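Researcher: Before we compare anything, I want clean individual predictions. No alignment, no superposition, just each chain on its own. First chain goes here; please echo the sequence and then give the structure tokens.
Model: Echoing the first chain and its structure:
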Amino acid sequence: MRYDLSVVASWIEPGSKVLDLGCGSGDLLHILSVDKDVRGTGIEAEEGKVTRGIEKGLSIVHGDINEEVRDYPDGSFDYVILSQTLQQVFHPAGLIREMLRVGRRGIVSFPNFAYYRIRGQLLFRGRAPVSRELPYEWYDTPNIRVITIRDFRRFCRKEGFAIARETAVSTPHHHEKGWVVKFLPNLLATYGMFMLRRRDASR
């Protein structure tokens, strides 16, 4: 399993109810159901990935995460996960509000655009960065947001999302190994990972 997903899995309490937005073929949900007895549901836009997830015995809905998440009643889940998808979301504040409406906690992760190698490409080569974490050219990328760890903290303060937990990791794209970055995370981490709750939530 990807290193960043193993960190997310470590944050989930056993026996929880989990909704994974943009779950792909359900790698995280599968591990959570086997190792932590989690009752998981996923939403995925790509039909082939939905089929592969269902073949694993997972409950995955085919559809748009922005629309499908609205169908769930308040407080349906313990955790709602948005892993490495935020940079492709048109209305991030609205989606995170929905996550925190249907879930007690929201977990968000994204590629850190302030990573020093990405900064270096723009500074020294004068070109839009392409990396293992952001592997697209400017003209064919699905990513419409440029997010840094520092920017995301500021966004949470502005929108009223309380950060219950955060970490920064350095790991190559889709790699199983990596490490937690504690020194200068906005400069040295490839991914930022946050657990959020509503500011008015008691716990």
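Researcher: Okay. Second chain, same rules.
Model: Second chain and its structure:
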Amino acid sequence: MSTLGATLRAAGRPLLIPYVTGGLTAGWADHLDACQDAGADAIEIGLPFSDPMLDGTTIQQASDRALARGATVGGILADIEAASRRVSVPLIVMTYANLALRLGAPRLAAAGVRGLIVPDLPLEESAPLEAAAAGAGIDLILLAAPSTPDDRLRQICRRSRGFVYAVSVMGTTGERDTLPATAVELVRRVKRLQPDPDGPERLPVLIGFGVSTPEHAAEAGRAGDGVIVASALMRRVLDGATPDDLRVAVAALRTALDLGVSSGTPYAEVSGDRR
């Protein structure tokens, strides 16, 4: 098992990976510290991209705002490198194939990145980046969707590193009122089809897309091994949430995951577009 996978398995609790859009605010990297302080097991960082085809309104708005304020990939990687010297949890970059292939795995590794998610990279075309990432010490994390057939899911389980990203629903990212039922069935299939389904080498399966509340996190944590939460957190930042505000929101998710039920911890709502 890779170092990222081993680190996540060693956590011994339902895993929580908050998402932060790189460059969204002037002090965006302070949100990384807030996420770690609140109990994140790793942090996903999105590199803003002008055509984020898999992202819904909230993450698109976050990317647009980051680009509008002049954020660049080079600047964000410099911030990540600085953050990696004080943040101990693994930092994972999510970006699109155009950027990932242009940057190359060694540059990401030099910035302290330990995991990479490239949602628009077809499995059939991923081998070169997969090899480059492995050579640089980065885990290429693959996504599985509810529509993925079993034979393809076996390939994803065999080739993914760190964890398997279970996309809860066919659609883009974004907040939803309920956790889609397809998420639970997908997690069950991913667990069953892994090469070592009941052994120590089984990859954690984390649910993303639509995990919007502590209640959703608790439900997803009971079904899988943890959650990735993006739009619900970035909406708050878009609406003015400070790192301290984000710390409270992530802590509520942490508590719900650990308890397996909603803790009743207030999860402060703010106005804004929930799409």
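Researcher: What stands out in the second chain?
Model: The beta strands are 15-21, 43-46, 91-94, 115-117, 139-141, 143-144, 164-167, 205-208, 226-229. Additionally, Confidence is low (pLDDT under 50) at residues 264-275.
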